[in-house]
Amino acid sequence: MGEILSGVLIAGSSHVGKTTLAKRLSEALGCTMISTDGLARHPGRPWPEVRLPVAEYYERLSPETIYWFLRVHHENMWPGLKRAIEDGIAAGRRFVLEGSALRPEFVAPFISGRVVGLCLHADSDVLRERMRAEAGYQEAGEAGRSLIDKFIERSLRDNSEMYRAAQENGMRIIDAAEPRALADIVDELVRRASSQTSAKSGAEDR
User: Fold this and answer.
1) What residues have CB less than 8 Å from 28, skipping those under 6 apart?
2) Which of 22, 96, 136, 174 is deepest in the core (most CB within 10 A)?
3) Which is higher by pLDDT, 184 or 92?
4) What is the four-CA torsion angle of 46, 47, 49, 52, rounded to 10 degrees?
């Protein structure tokens, strides 16, 4: 029968589709979904309305510093996320956890027969167009575009770093630009969960 599926951890950069996949999986598996965005967000997207602190953050800091702060934010979040994963596994209740703070190098030690780790990735051009479309890039003024460009640059760098880290840590990579690939992983995990449930019920009936 194999180990019972306990958790699914979904990593990936901004706008790669983590929340969408997590919702599909949680609904299909009938389990809880948790997003790291609901725990902390740093520092926010410079759209649709730009708060002054957010504007100043992207205006004043270099791309290197902006990305450094993102990594520090993820490192600061990890102890709490690690406890949440451990608690979810110990409780025996199936869960789906998604977020950019679930960096492959952090979550790799948890991947096992009970916990599935997925890293969503898409080409830079795909993500750039997604973010520009959502941000209303074509309608934004010069100042607004400058802020959006900095957010996009940060996100594309993170997309590349996530991909590299996933490869190095043997984490499964899913092409987020391919609807068939996303549908396949949902079907695969639902079949796995269903077969385990059926096998468990059969064993209990004997």
Assistant:
1) 186, 189, 190
2) 96
3) 184
4) 0
| 69 neighbors 54 (Cβ within 8 angstroms) | no
C-alpha–C-alpha distance, residues 66 and 63, integer Å: 5
Model pTM? Answer: 0.92
| Average per-residue pLDDT for the chain | 92
Please, where are the H alpha helices in the chain? 18-29, 52-60, 63-91, 104-107, 124-135, 142-168, 179-205
Q: By three-state DSSP, how is residue 153 classified?
A: helix
12: left (phi over 0), alpha (psi -120 to 50) or beta: left
- CA–CA separation, 116 and 5 (whole Å): 8
Cβ atoms of residues 122 and 177 within 8 Å: yes
Q: Look at residue 156 and tell me whether its pLDDT is greater than 90.
A: yes
Q: The CATH number of 7-198 is which of 3.40.50.460, 3.40.640.10, 3.40.50.880, 3.40.50.300?
A: 3.40.50.300
Cβ-count burial 63-76 (b if 16+ within 10 Å, e if not)? eeebbeebeebbee
Map out the domains of the chain as residue ranges.
7-198
